[in-house]
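Hey team,

Sharing the NADH-quinone oxidoreductase subunit E run so nobody has to redo it. Sequence (682 residues) first:
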Amino acid sequence: MDLHFGDSKPTDEERAAVDSLLGLPTSAWEGADDRTDSDLRWARGGREARERRDLLLPGLHAINDRIGWISEGALDYLCRRLTVPPAEAYGVATFYAMFAVKPRPAKVLHVCTDLACASKGSAAVCAGLEERLGAAGSAAGGLVWQPSPCLGLCERAPAALVIQAGVPSDEGSAPQPPAAPGATERVQLGGARPSWPAGANPAGPARAANGVSVTAPLPSSPAGLPVGGQAAEAAPRRYATAVIAPATPEALVLAGAEPAAAPAEPAAALAVPQAGQPGLSLLSRVGVVDPYSLDDYRAHDGYRALRRAFDLGPAGVIREVTDAGLVGRGGAAFPTGRKWQATASQPVRQHYLVCNADESEPGTFKDRVVMEGDPYALIESMTIAGYAVGADRGYLYLRGEYPRALRLLQHAIDQARARGFLGDDILGQGYAFDIEIRRGAGAYICGEETALFNSIEGYRGEPRSKPPFPVESGLFGKPTAENNVETLINVLPILNQGAAAYAAIGTGQSTGPKLFCVSGNVGKPGIYELPFGATLGELLELAEAPDTMRAILLGGAAGGFVRPDELDIPLTFEGTRAAGTTLGSGVVLVLDDTVPLPKMLVRVAEFFRDESCGQCVPCRVGTVRQEEALHRIVDKTGEDAAEDIALLREVGAAMKDASICGLGQTAWSAVESAIDRLGAYK
Ligand SMILES: Cc1cc2nc3c(=O)[nH]c(=O)nc-3n(C[C@H](O)[C@H](O)[C@H](O)COP(=O)(O)O)c2cc1C
Ligand code: SF4
Ligand code: FES
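Structure output:
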């Protein structure tokens, strides 16, 4: 592909995709067909152009969603519209796994091969697909399938996601019938998971193009006629997504043929084995409220915390959060009150609040379940956080592979705005705050806070060197408080119960409730809420872990393995640290003795090699060397493996010491723990 403006023209559809985001071009400089007199005297550039750079990622999404890939002509047109150099835009487009810059079929089937799915038979699913559809990456029948890192659906492993490019559901057609309130998102507690018999044509509810399950059996044509026969042939292909989990090759072939007809996903609350039980705090509403209803949220304590925040004032909110001892749940365990205070006290304006919902750590799915089961809780929490740090704008950076969370959160934001819970004068208190969702596009590294800022700003998602820290110079170079979803929703019980009552939960250094993502070889995988201080054994008893456990991975790929005889480790920041391991993002992945550990380690290494942004040498080279060495010893033990294990230690130490960001610094942790703690290769 040429890296300068070329002669390639966008197709009408590509143009329409970009224009649907940016509006029609107003000058020939922007790609309008006709040159006007003013075009000869005036060109967009400088500051005005820089201010639109952050629309690059949404623009790439718009093209990719509609066409399925990003052609030279489409990229060229988007670059003209945004005055972005095509070489830079190409660098951004190729950074993300969800985008393609070469032609590919409109339907892409992502099949998770990460740890939880591997322990639940993803290899057999891939083998079945190879038989039916050909090798991964080869196109057949308008579909291409490819292995994928963790899709954040680990409780229903093995998991897969189909994305069909096409016209957005709300463009050029009569409105879809509204979803019955909470019809599919609300749980029937104790209800069975819907199953889709192999070979059957699913007769379940139809799904609107954006994936919403609708009450009518078939989507409508532009004229409101049922789609079928000739009308169906004339209808444009619609954007659609389908989540298939647990996946079988047969179900995936069916979903791949017609994603819009795939059965609706089970309600989010089925991922919460404790749903509906008394004593829950963070998960108390999941499965209880209708996630589509602001009124239902309000009827279940919703927006009480925001009212208290207005009573306390910004400084009072920060004091409560500090006194409560809240510590970030995104992995770095930084005290939230300190972060907020540091942001609030910056004299520079404007301030931003960013919610990190990128959730790409293999084995992590708690944020998805919260966002799908209780979306207004996150919107309320972000509003309180924005108020505390003096931000009038919030960005919610959402993992690109979470279609249902996107739909629910966008709906919640729209409703909150319409009802005065977001906007220029929230609840008549004179506080202005609004939230914009930005979709990630398949890059684990964008969960690192500064990489996330670059991603929103329209650059490659590469971490920045720190200092300066985000509280001084974050998003768009302004003071920014960036927090994980789970961290933010803890603010609700803090304000509702008061700091002292909250701090009484857990231990002195790890206060409050904690969400754990339990997956792998357990009887009841899912999200569990426990007070900090419960032991690993207590958690695994709830999840019905088997006697045949071989290893437990704590903290995800960036975490470490522990042995089944270490179940008395307290699940606290200090307890796991003392035990030489980490809580990380709350992953607890159980592997039994049937799982080939060396192959799992190769998968971990492959993940880091793939996800390294390549910016610094220790990580870029080290992750490759690590994977090579693990491949070499996959069937070896003892002396035969010794030389490579020595090499792994050397490479691992270099990555830990000299990498710019947490990805490189932790890329060797799980492998190291498997060697030293589990005695892998002995
Ligand atoms: C490679 C990498 C990936 C990360 N991914 C996430 C993520 O998906 N979600 C998240 O909240 N934090 C993630 N983090 C941690 C963030 O950089 C940051 O510490 C966190 O979002 C701060 O929020 P908290 O203080 O509420 O924990 C990641 C860090 C690294 C190094
Ligand atoms: S450590 Fe790895 S992911 Fe992080 S900046 Fe360096 S190359 Fe990129
Ligand atoms: S969805 Fe497959 S490991 Fe998480």
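Residues 445, 463, 612-616, 619-620, 659-661, 663-664 surround iron/sulfur cluster (ligand 2) (CB under 6 Å).

Ping me if you want the raw files.
A.
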